Amino acid sequence: MKWHRISAMFLRHIYLYRHSLTRLVEIFYWPLLDLLVWGFVSLYITKISAEGKSTPNFLGIFLGALILWDILFRSQQGISVSFLEEVWSRNFLNLFVSPLTVGEYLVSLMLVAVFKVVVVFLVSALLAWLLYSFNLFIIGIYLLPFMLNLIILGWAIGIITTALILRFGQQAEVLAWGIAFLFQPVSAVFYPLSVLPKFLQKLAMIIPASYVFEGMRAIIFGRHFSLTLLLRAFTLNLIYLSLALFFFFRMFRQVRVRGLLARMGE
Amino acid sequence: MAAIGVPVLEVKNLSKSYNSFPAVKNVSFELYPGEILGLLGPNGAGKTTIIQMLMGLTSPTSGEIKIFNLDPEKPRQRERILSRMNFSSTYVAMPYSLTLKESLMVFAKLYGVKKARAKIDSLIDQFDLKEVADQPVRTLSSGQMTKLNLAKAFVNDPEVLLLDEPTASLDPDIADRTRKYLLEVKQTRRLAILYTSHNMQEMEEISDRLLFLHHGEIIARGTPEDLVACFEGEDLEDVFLKVAREVRP
Predict the structure, then answer these.
(1) Quick check: B65 and B140 in contact, CB under 8 A?
(2) Which residue range forms the structural domain that includes residue B141?
């Protein structure tokens, strides 16, 4: 073993962090998110124990939440990772010198996302039933609007991520893997909104996913879920999707002016 | 072959600046059916930027581009233009995980090719790719990849073809065959080709006319013989070296 070779490789990675803000942020990003999510989960469990209530159906809450969360995540990845596939295989330019329009390209990515979501959802639901006797379909007819809401939010996040990758290149690739998780703590995936501090509860009101997870818990607990809240989630989602599309087209125009599109494809 | 007929591509006073850096300055030229026009110049001369603007990947700062008398800056017209032209570059690849046949099928569908299977089979035969037709693209050699790129470029029977160093990674035998094929289709289909290469011998052999670019400007134009005479060089390679070293005609 030669120290100069080890230090050369160490230096190589330190240089990388010095020049990339996204990589630097990523070091702190995941631990911080884990701390937030699992901290709130712990608070939730502690609160239930302290209130001395009967133990809720944790299996249903956590498994259901996990499967539904994956819908949002796969939907976002269906857009941004499918886009990255073209960049990685240096096929991107070939697509955009064909008659394919940007709108057609985005619709195709949305369809890929739905395909991924459906396949992953069916497999996960089947495994949850086989391994843990948990039937996600107890949510009943609400399952469809819940899924649709998560898919639309996933599309919106995926489109914004893709626009940022287009604009900032490889540096922004890390967003494709992590950006959806930024919404996890305030979406109240594994715990009710009431566990969050007041200011985060307010923030959660503008995150459509929080309505879905609150709704899921309400149904699993045998309570009524308000249709008004579901409609609010849909409205927010449609606003976000419209804003995401507007942002993408704007970025695409800017990328053309700056000549970055061609660089992305080579 | 002399340029005749109505140009399929017209560029007038085209300029592109990135911030304050002028990458292309006031460039004008035409491309005619059945003609190979070579874009020549040292690295950073503006060749790639011009090709990018022709394909609508980069928007011009000023000037006008007309392809088939349509404007690529207008989305609907761009769509119509791109369905009648194609592009191939050594620096661009095809989807790695798909087989060669699947890749071509994707592009046949993108270009709305009728009888796509028959077209793909004929391209596979034409470019001698039968043995690797069902192999994933990632397993192809660079020569096979270049041939696949060229096959893709012919999938829609284009009327205008933009080729960016198409033979850069080919061995001399395959490069020679590719040039002969291009010369043949140029004649038989009256295909218009815009061609870039750093291989001066190739440019001399294949181009009907050449545009010599330097620092974003066209500094000379004409047949390969014209350019050699204009710069008082021994051959095109000699002319290239003179230009790259800032010797003006």
Answers:
(1) no
(2) 92-157
- Provide the ipTM: 0.88
Residue among B17, B20, B52 with most chain A CBs within 10 A, to mutate: B52
Over residues B107-163, the pLDDT tens digits come to 999 999 999 999 999 999 988 899 999 999 999 988 899 889 999 999 999 999 999
DSSP string, B121-183: HHHHHHTT-GGGTTSBGGGS-HHHHHHHHHHHHTTT--SEEEEESTTTTS-HHHHHHHHHHHH
pLDDT tens digits, one per residue of B84-115:
999 998 888 899 899 999 999 999 999 999 99
Q: Which of B83, B86, B91 shows the shortest C-beta gap to A266? A: B91
| pTM as predicted | 0.89
CB pairs under 8 A between A and B: 78
Distance from CA of B227 to the nearest CA of A (A): 30
Residues B196 and B170 in one domain: yes
CB contacts under 8 A, B 167-196 vs A, are none
Would A170 be classed as within a structural domain? Answer: yes
Position B65 pLDDT exceeds 80: yes
On whether both B167 and B237 belong to a single domain, the answer is yes
Res. B245: pLDDT tops 80: no
Are B73 and B125 part of one and the same domain? no
Continuous segment of H or E residues that includes residue B38: strand B36-40
What's the DSSP call for residue A17? H
Within an 8 Å CB–CB cutoff, is residue A105 touching chain B?
no
